[in-house]
Amino acid sequence: MGRSIPSFREKLGESLKSIEGGLIPLLSVERRKAYERVSRVWVEEYTAMSCYSNPHLLTTMLLVAVLDLQAQILQLEERLRRLEADKGDGCGALPARV
Q1: What is the domain extent for residue 35?
Q2: What's the predicted TM-score (pTM) here?
């Protein structure tokens, strides 16, 4: 019998489960929200990622950096919305995130 090699999709699913079970509970609320958005992007970009491979350590480092940057973006967007609401004119307001 030959060995069964999991597909990239299966590996991605396993990685997401592992991240969600191990890393995400340890992060701040802001970074957990950032993870939700980033994980959607990973699923959307599954085909592109299936053609590229990284060492595990680099992957983890990049993951944390990406989550941190996404959290900062979300915080800045919220601050900008509050500032625009305080201004009261609504000109140039950011659209609501989907």
Answers
A1: 8-87
A2: 0.63
